[in-house]
Write a structure and sequence with these properties.
By secondary structure, the protein is mostly beta strands. The chain has 2 domains: 120 residues, Elongation Factor Tu (Ef-tu), domain 3, CATH 2.40.30; 72 residues, RelE-like (YaeB-like fold), CATH 3.30.2310.20. The chain contains 3 helices and 14 strands. The protein has a 6-stranded antiparallel β-barrel with strand order 3-4-9-8-5-10. A 4-stranded mixed sheet has the order 11-14-13-12. The protein binds S-adenosyl-L-homocysteine (SAH).
């Protein structure tokens, strides 16, 4: 559903109303710790539930033939009254500024995100239509505006120049689990999958780009599923301390 009010005025953009076609269910219950781009952690799985009136099996007919899809979504937890023309991307150490339109930062004039994610399955169960996803960088509850198949011949440009983000960020930390964390993980249903997910997330070093010496040895928490993942970094090594219940 799209309608515009008043058209395009001198010096003023068109106002547009959009309706979410779906909502994402993901392990990520807060922004901190989410991979900074889709595909960085293929093990990060989620589910996109189509919302009425878009939960029609016909609306996704043929989508199962695609391995990846584009999602356009709202950064619903990054909505601000005022916009800033520049941002400080973590890739530049959090100090240098670039134009907001030269970045993939969540804080933008229109808080719209774009992620290419794996499509593992199209699940139709009566009124419920959902897509199983992998490689998500999306907060739980993210509203999705549109879904489109990823078309390699048009969308993949391996020769493209990529400014300040020429390659994936390095996996710079090794990850270890305390005995307590190992026991807690083993007691859960998908222990091995969870261990791999946590390892992949922490290897990327999710700590804020600018941090002082106190970042060494400090305990961080990441809300995943129904627990707070407690971990710290010392000398290039991330140690998972425990999975504290929320
Ligand atoms: N692939 C997208 C998103 C890149 S920014 C794009 O390029 O547009 C990724 C970051 O957005 C994540 O690390 C997470 O912190 C943040 N994020 C994800 N979902 C969000 C949401 N619904 N609201 C606010 N921030 C979100």
């Amino acid at each position: 559903m799209l309608h515009s009010r008043g058209g395009l005025h001198r010096g003023r953009g068109m106002e547009i109303t959009l309706r979410a076609v779906g909502i994402v269910h993901s392990p990520f219950k807060e922004k901190f710790g989410i991979p900074r781009q889709s595909g960085l952690v293929p093990e990060a799985c989620g589910r996109l539930e189509l919302l009425p009136p878009y939960n029609r099996p016909e609306a996704v007919a043929g989508l199962e033939g695609y391995s990846h899809i584009w999602l356009q979504f709202v950064f619903h937890q990054a909505i601000r009254e005022r916009w800033q023309p520049t941002v400080r991307p973590p890739r530049l150490g959090g100090n240098a500024r670039v134009g907001v339109f030269a970045s993939r930062a969540p804080y933008r004039p229109n808080p719209i995100g774009l992620s290419v994610v794996g499509l593992e399955a199209v699940v139709v169960d009566g009124e419920r239509v959902s897509l199983s996803l992998s490689g998500v960088d999306l907060l739980d509850g993210t509203p999705v505006l549109d879904i489109k198949p990823y078309v390699a011949y048009a969308d993949s440009l391996p020769q493209a120049r990529c400014g300040f983000a020429p390659a994936a960020p390095p996996r710079c930390l090794t990850v270890h689990f305390s005995e307590r964390a190992q026991e807690q993980i083993a007691r859960r249903g998908d222990g091995e999958g969870l261990r791999v997910l946590i390892t992949r997330l922490l290897e990327l070093d999710p700590r804020p780009a600018y941090r002082g010496d106190e970042a060494q040895g400090r305990t961080y928490g990441i809300r995943l599923y129904d627990f707070d993942l407690r971990w710290r970094v010392t000398a290039g090594r991330a140690e998972v301390l425990e999975l504290a219940p929320l």
